[in-house]
Fold:
Amino acid sequence: MIPGPFSYHRPATLAEAVNLLSTLGDEARPLAGGHSLVPMMKLRLASPEHLVDLHGVAGLKGIQRRGDKIVIGAMTTQHELLASDDIGKSLPILHETALLIADPQVRYRGTIGGNVANGDPGNDMPALMMVLSASYRLEGKSGAREVAANEFYQGAYFTALEPGELLTSISIPLPAAGHGYAYEKLKRKVGDYATAAAAVVLTMAGGKVATCKIGLTNLSETPLLAEDAAKAVIGTSLDPATLKQAAAAAEAIMSPAADARGPVEYRKHIGGIMVTRALQRAAGRAG
Amino acid sequence: MAKTHVTMKVNGVEVEGLVEPRTLLVHFIRENLSLTGTHIGCETTHCGACTVDIDGMSVKSCTMFAVQAQGSEIMTIEGVANADGSLSALQEGFRMTHGLQCGFCTPGMILRAQRLLKENPRPSEEEIRMGISGNFCRCTGYQNIVKAIQYAAAKINGDEFKEAAE
Structure:
């Protein structure tokens, strides 16, 4: 399996990369970790004429604290996220999720920027970014703009990215100290996309849920925020009736595709179970 | 398509070649360098038979272009043995514990396990299994591969290798 021919570009600066992408137009694709794009190219499901490799661009990697936010460069790999103590302490849900993405080799190459910018409904980080109220910095020829993760995803592989724009970093507000979190993902095997997955970040006060956000992966064409489900648990102690109600509210907004992972009804059912488990585990971790 | 000149260090030796941008690293290693110990299994980034070590990372060389490895340091199975030609701890472990049957996955397993043990010299059985979860073996059921890695870890750490009771 050999990809179609293409020209290879390795810019050293962001300005050069953006310039290349806007000059070369639709036939050019940025190359980050390449573990979604290169397999597609080998299957000839993608055959860009130009690849703009971002590995040479300075300043796209790294994890920084800026005030009450953590800013992660787009080319930071899943492996680097896992190696970061700062992420482990302040955003442990990123560690939990990164460990469920693909396998060790893929995590050495796969980047968080690629994961969130790709627009594949199976990517795990986007639902998390919605739950964490993250925003993405998009840079193009006409300048930079910030787009909330909540407003970024428009359809499968359709995002707010304009032609020639690159997602350069992700900014995540630090969650409250003592927050509870969980990412529950059912997959058929290591390396598979989720049959269904749910991300939960919540805080508890006096044994009751004070704040809660729930995100869903691979249960629609885009990641989803399950707002009604989250509302249903506020002020409760996550008793069985509430959990059932939250799962039902989440299932009501799911519209997964029927595929090798199962028929629609099954995937929605599993989606509800993932929501229930994530809520329970997150509550158990909340301080 | 114009070819690009690439240079890299493979198993300690400077190598060079002319490649099309679309040439996958595994093809460059096998066909240009004639190092055929790196295997092509699934070609779809799943099986890990093509795993090599690049600049301290385990990478599936079927999912990276040779042009991307410009200037890198790479180790393949041909570079794993000790300088005097004796088997490395991992190679010895695979031999002693019957960590292979057909042997097709072994180069990828050994390269991956070598990086795993560098990052985590005393992995638990669970950590070994997660550490090689990107490498498929269709013969052994993994049991003896895990033992081989435990054998190598013990040898590298100077510990006694004890087989877990089954």
Q: What stands out?
A: Chain A touches chain B through 29 residues (CB under 8 Å). The longest helix of chain A spans residues 264-285. Residues 196 and 226 of chain A are 14 Å apart (CA to CA).
